[in-house]
Amino acid sequence: MELSLDEIEQVAADVVERGDLPTLGQEPSRTYRLGIMGGTFDPIHNGHLVAAEQAFDDLGLDTVVFMPAGRPAFKQDKQVSAGEDRYAMTLLATSDNPHFLASRFEVDRPGITYTADTLERLRAIYPENVELYFITGADAIADIVSWREAGRMASLARFVGATRPGYDLARAKSAIAKSGLPFDVTYLEVPALAISSSYLRERVRRGQSLRYLTPDAVTGYIHKHKLYGASQLGYGSKGAEGRE
Ligand code: DND
């Protein structure tokens, strides 16, 4: 079968738009489930990874795409590491898990990164038999109603709130109910990992080890590129100032 020039251009445009995203939806009689783990990932840590793995298992996802935000919408007043560094750390952290992919989809997009835009683009790329699941931590789920164009987001994807055992979901549930928006949220219990990116940055500044908090490859990257005030050598070992 020969393609016309227009058709070839359309195929090329689709490839460019899709970039490094996984191919899903080929079999029309089957439903596919694409997990999207959005984050600043400054840096990525084991809390993010455990939450995504749990969502993969519990919801029967086909794959989870980790998407570092380009210019995070709500962090305009804060210093955030370069997108390239956050993407590289995300790639390193996800590379040994066959369920996970790291994508440049948001990092390469100019301007402020809004989740509603991302979901709209993904919805246009994938056929209807691919369901979108946007994964967030429990703390963030109560806030999604205040994200830009929350109503549009609710119509484009399902949401997954990863909660810790014993976490009180009342705030999240009441915020969503009060908004009147048709959010479809599945709550998952993930092992308690009281880790945050800011805690990891603080530990690096103090010269403390990140072992068991994030994959070693990420720790290596942080020191190699001197992120968060790190010295190139000696993480979690001697020589760091202010070490406890
Ligand atoms: P964060 O900066 O919270 O990411 O951003 C999460 C996502 O929300 C990104 O995709 C943003 O673009 C999007 N967002 C936020 C606000 C407004 C808008 C969009 C908008 O469009 O208006 P972090 O790197 O801090 O964390 C990534 C995810 O991991 C978050 O959902 C967070 O709650 C979760 N998380 C944990 N989950 C389980 N255990 C832990 C966790 N620590 C963070 N220990």
Could you give the distance between the termini? 69 Å
Tell me the number of helical segments per DSSP (H or I, 4 or more residues long).
Answer: 9
Radius of gyration over alpha carbons? 19 Å
Q: Assembly type of the shown chains?
A: single chain
- Bound compounds: nicotinic acid adenine dinucleotide
Give the secondary structure arrangement, pairings included.
Layout: H1 5-18, E1 32-39, H2 46-59, E2 63-68, E3 71-72, H3 83-94, E4 100-102, E5 112-113, H4 115-125, E6 130-137, H5 138-141, H6 150-156, E7 158-163, H7 170-179, E8 185-189, H8 197-205, H9 216-224
Bound molecules: nicotinic acid adenine dinucleotide (DND).
Nicotinic acid adenine dinucleotide binds at residues 38-41, 47-48, 51, 69, 72-74, 113-116, 136-137, 139-140, 147-148, 162, 190, 193, 195-197.
Task: Give a short summary of the structure.
The protein is an alpha/beta fold. The chain is built from nine helices and eight strands. It has helices at residues 5-18, 46-59, 83-94, 115-125, 138-141, 150-156, 170-179, 197-205, 216-224, and strands at residues 32-39, 63-68, 71-72, 100-102, 112-113, 130-137, 158-163, 185-189.
